[in-house]
Amino acid sequence: MSNKEALQQLLRWKRQQIDPVELGWLRRSGRGRRSKGLSQAQVAQALYVSERTYADLERGDTATPSTDLLDSVAQVLRMEERERTALYVYALGYEPPIPMDPTAGTNVAPAWQHAVSNVAGQPCYINDVAWNVLAANDDFIRMFPQVPGEAPRLPEQNLMRWMLLREESREHHLVDWEKRWAEPVAAQLRTSVAARPDNEELQRLDQEVNDDPVAGPIYRNHNVAYVHPDGDSRRMRHAGFLPADGHDTRDHCCDRHTVSQSGIVTMCAAQPFGSPGARFFLLVFQPDGR
To answer: HTH cro/C1-type domain location, by residue (predicted)?
Structure first.
């Protein structure tokens, strides 16, 4: 089946699912066979376009339909996120850059939380579109600087806020913080704020980081363009690392924290398809000298 045929079937099927009465048309009466669902003329009217414009789209005869038209069609035909994605792929050849649902990426299915918490041997976690941790395993929690006598815990629910604004990350946990961490992470935040202007958490982060005397100048420097860290390797200290070969090179970063291991972490990132914008991370740590 070609993309053109797939587009025709998708749009016709979605039209058939909607009762015209639900969009304000009078219920049909009288004799004669009546097609189920909305007609092309009714969809066109709801879109405020000509019937020919919509008919050409449904037939696949519109060479490059605008994203505004496709989004309007998805809204009128009450498409789910996966259906809108299919609409873009059939009509344009690529997936939509931004989810239709403004809350997309703010949560994940409980099965993801269960899966992540049961991973052992490598730190892993899931964050939402604004870098709030949604799920994490024990290995991830133990990575962070630990205070003697206290149980391991996340230093903060929002990782972006912690990475860019907290002295603990700048001075103790993230090695070569300004170049290797702050510059790409700040660029990630700029991209996300631009892509999701209605996300209140991202807007708060934008203001906090911009106003910070240390991170602010880095954040306002637009020389670095960066979208995601998949495959990146950066230096850090791992507080939960336990040497298995008897070669213990852990030391103290300061008087306030327990021993930790310096090394390189490589970030493997993926996206839960049911929550576009959320990210799953598996962190591969290589200690120095190994």
So the answer is: 33-84
